[in-house]
Amino acid sequence: MYDIVIIGSGVSGAVSARELSRYQADICVLEKEEDVCCGTSKANSAIVHAGYDAAPGSLKAKLNVRGNERMESLARELDFPFERTGSLVLCFQEADFPKLKALYDRGQVNGVRALRILNQEEILGMEPNVAEDVYAALYAPTAGIVCPFGLNIALAENACANGVEFKFGTEVKDIKKLENGFALYTTKGVIEARYVVNAAGLYGDVIHNMVSKRELRLTARRGDYCLLDKEAGNHVTRTIFQLPDERGKGILVTPTVHGNLLMGPTAIETEDKEGTNTTQEGLEQVLKKAGRSVRNLPLRQTITSFAGLRAHAQGDDFIIEEAEDVKGFIDCIGIESPGIASCPAIGEMVASILREKMNLKEKGEFISARKGVLNPNTLSTEARNALIQEKPAYGNLICRCEMISEGEILDAIHRSLGAKSLDGIKRRTRVGMGRCQGGFCAPRVMEILARELGMNIRDITKSGGASRMLSGVNKDTQ
User: Fold this and answer.
1) Which residues, at least 6 apart from 439, have a Cβ–Cβ distance to it below 8 Å?
2) 208 belongs to the catalytic site
3) What is the mean pLDDT of residues 178-196?
4) Which residues are paired to 332 by β-bridges?
């Protein structure tokens, strides 16, 4: 029996595991997919929101502001990309100015620092490519951008380094309340736990309803995105929003920490919790509304489109609490925007609930730091040459779009919670995320994966399960 089982290894599950690993407890994370960061956490806007949007007093407001404050130090500790670039919320007509002022006032109540309302001249001085008919904007210098995969993987690896066990390909099919805990019936057998943290993303309502008579329902909202090449990455230097509506913060245009330009998302409700397909209608909406905010978008530089799903709770707030009628069962669900920005504070809150309930004691030693996959291009010429001399794989370029070496791919495979699929390599190194979208490097990455994992190349998958990359291959082909 584990002391704590966490269901889900997205950002919420991983940050909860990391914060709980500070204490003396046997902790296990169950994930139905083949890797961390396979759901909502892998496909989102990657924005660290400032905190002016959420209703004062809500968990979203409190945890957003706290999480934003902690993100910079967390990025230093765990070695993932984060930049405090700032954001602008655009207002296009005087009649809408009261809505902009209301956002400013809400931000003041929520404790967001350094907010300012700018006039047209100030806005165009900051961002020359913003629509010329802009009337005013809310400027939030504390907003930022992050790598969501880098954040999620860093949290999980650090939790693992502190003793948390991860079980992949382990889907929870049912949960029974025991006298002193829970029995979780999974695709890999029965697992018992004294306490359970439900961080199952879009399936958080399904997991909750297995044990509680107070049923919850999460609504899946699909967001379509377009990603532009790095040549377009400096078209704007801050995240550009329009005034939000009841469906969220609307279509944004933003640089990414890796130098691309991102546009999206839509907010289309769907009954399909796996429905990450893009649609022509959704992508046309992205392009139209992004073009309203920013002029001369270089749309010919689009290299891919994708969609992500977020879980919207009926009360329009995060749900982080012990289930009223099930002692020991902690929900951490409904984590939509600003979930990425809030995640450091979400982990603190989950850990605080269980620390109090379980009377947890801190460990004598907690490993607070972690290093990511080494990118030799960040080294001096002398240091890079010395690295290649010692480890020649770092001189063997595999992905020319993103300039990724074999050495980085080997690191991604063999580190703790290492990659087992093409998408796993992609999230850890950016192989295949460039202009050719893996068209040239994917076969070479497959060969490396097969060799290092001792697998037949025909069994290499895109993202686990039945997503094999090759079909019709002779079984004797290596």
Assistant:
1) none
2) no
3) 97
4) 320
88-114 pLDDT, tens digit each: 999 999 999 999 999 999 999 999 999
CATH of segment(s) 85-144+219-310: 3.30.9.10
Asked if residue 47 lies in contact with residue 87, where contact means CB atoms within 8 angstroms, the answer is: yes
Nearest to 156 by CA among 40, 351, 272, 12: 12
Q: Which CATH number fits domain 376-459: 3.40.50.2000, 3.40.30.10, 1.10.3720.10, 1.10.10.1100?
A: 1.10.10.1100
Query: Is the torsion defined by CA of 130, 437, 448, 391 positive or negative?
Result: negative
Residue type, 452: E
Q: What b/e string do you get for 6-23 counting C-beta neighbours within 10 Å, with b at 16 or more?
A: bbbbbbbbbbbbbbbbbb
Residue 31, pLDDT > 60, answer: yes
Ramachandran category for residue 116: left, alpha or beta (phi over 0 → left; psi -120 to 50 → alpha): beta
How far apart are alpha carbons 34 and 473 in whole angstroms? 23
Residue with tokens 């330009």: 261
Which amino acid, residue 352?
S
> For 129, which DSSP code?
T
Tell me phi and psi for residue 470, to 5 degrees.
-115, 145
Q: What is the pTM of this model?
A: 0.96
CA–CA dist 166, 27 (Å, integer):
9
Q: Are 159 and 8 in contact (CB under 8 A)?
A: no
DSSP-derived secondary structure letter, 130: B
Residue ranges covered by each domain of the chain: 85-144+219-310, 376-459
- Which of the residues 49, 208, 235, 312 is marked catalytic? 49
Check residues 15 and 250 and name the one with the higher pLDDT. 15
- C-alpha to C-alpha distance for 241 and 293, rounded to whole angstroms: 8
Read off the tokens for 450: 């097969």
Q: Which residues contact 232 (CB under 8 A, 6 or more apart)?
A: 260, 261, 297, 298, 301
* Contact (CB, 8 A) for 3 and 360: no
